[in-house]
Amino acid sequence: MTPTISYQINRLARGSIPFLLSFLLILLSVVPIRISGYATVTPSFLMIAVFYWSLHRPYLLPAPMVFILGLLFDILTGTPMGLSSLTLLVVHGIAITQRQVFVGKAFILTWWGFLLVGAAIAILSWLLACIISFTFLPIIPVLVQYGLTVLIFPPVVWCFALVQGSLLRHI
User: Fold this and answer.
1) 66 lies in some domain
2) Helix-helix angle 45-56:107-133, to 10 degrees
3) Model's pTM, two decimal places?
4) Is residue 46 part of a domain?
5) Average pLDDT, 10 consecutive residues per value, the chain (171 residues)
């Protein structure tokens, strides 16, 4: 028995939710806010999204989509092309390989895991940016961005969990 066209469209629309939410978070990251210096320390909403969806629904946000999201982020923010894609693919890979450690466990364990992964990614992205620019860049903005990202992780993940529970439970 073949599913109806409306069922297939519904399934496709629901399956694209993680990608679309991640894209909306990219747009949120580049919206100009009139706070001095905020652009350099904007929390990494996209890293939170990739970490969450790679843990909970990896088949809805596969590596090629993560790569595309990273490229879109690089285009919109003006960072070196491929830098975000590389770091997001590392986050994706770590999250997928460590799913059994985090899924179904207490939230504090997931937050702790994100804290460690985020620290590694912050240092990696800073090192890569220093190599690309052939100079030592200040690390303080990277650390502030990392701290803000870790602080906003719980409310963003809570919103993702609501979406997953209400819209994605049958996919």
Assistant:
1) yes
2) 130
3) 0.90
4) yes
5) 74 82 91 72 91 92 94 91 93 94 90 95 92 90 93 95 80 62
